[in-house]
């Protein structure tokens, strides 16, 4: 490690797939929806360099495998993981698993947490075990024959229902057909999802009609954990800053307090680290509405003026550079000093 501008200069491997590369290979915008925006990578890269760190860009898991095999990781102090993965039901866990195997300190959650949170059904099972509210649900297996789907129309869940792929994020597979108003609409909706994601199970749960929040969480002092949520203007607005409603002035609202409370419970139960977010939706607009955890995101977008995490930080007086530096400091707090390079610069 060296010294720069009065602070520790680290050798940082910035790991992330580049969306433009996959688009050039012929994948669709929806295929690439979860991948990091090229502008997001550039924002993180330039900010880390401005903070005095020496940054090596590692463009995805294939490049990471090559660099690990060549021993190049031995001169990294830290991996800043932005990789979402592209193949497989536990794709978000693949890069953390490799980093863990090679004992490379890294930001955000470990492989076990990433894999668990990627599967929404498994997430809900853990939430149920810990008595953290989440909507009742059933899972339609990917290999369920089409002619047997009728048995799920009498599952006991109350209509309207909401159906979605069990391991997708970034609103992939979400459209108007996902809200199922009666048994006659269930089979066509499930078939539509199965045709788009043939290898994925389908999650079925009651449609929650109340307000939806995302609660950014952080593990560092003076962070954003004590501040209220951002509210989604609609179910389809999760990737657009201009459709988020800031609720920073509404700390005393009972629903905001309830959403903060259950999101923090979930964050701790899953062992999330450094920063991320939890999505919550209330089951109604009544005073006694229950905040249900929709999903836990142990790795969250970092696109300035767009992603909820930096948006919430900014609204609470935390600059983008301060957010990234705090994430790094949080990750370094887990490191045994022997994992850092031998004081070389």
Automatic annotation (TrEMBL):
<comment type="similarity">
    <text>Belongs to the D-alanine--D-alanine ligase family.</text>
</comment>
<dbReference type="Pfam" id="PF07478">
    <property type="entry name" value="Dala_Dala_lig_C"/>
</dbReference>
<dbReference type="GO" id="GO:0005524">
    <property type="term" value="F:ATP binding"/>
</dbReference>
<protein>
    <recommendedName>
        <fullName>ATP-grasp domain-containing protein</fullName>
    </recommendedName>
</protein>
<dbReference type="GO" id="GO:0046872">
    <property type="term" value="F:metal ion binding"/>
</dbReference>
<feature type="domain" description="ATP-grasp">
    <location>
        <begin position="124"/>
        <end position="329"/>
    </location>
</feature>
<dbReference type="InterPro" id="IPR013815">
    <property type="entry name" value="ATP_grasp_subdomain_1"/>
</dbReference>
<keyword id="KW-0547">Nucleotide-binding</keyword>
<dbReference type="InterPro" id="IPR011095">
    <property type="entry name" value="Dala_Dala_lig_C"/>
</dbReference>
<keyword id="KW-0067">ATP-binding</keyword>
<dbReference type="InterPro" id="IPR011761">
    <property type="entry name" value="ATP-grasp"/>
</dbReference>
<keyword id="KW-0436">Ligase</keyword>
<dbReference type="GO" id="GO:0008716">
    <property type="term" value="F:D-alanine-D-alanine ligase activity"/>
</dbReference>
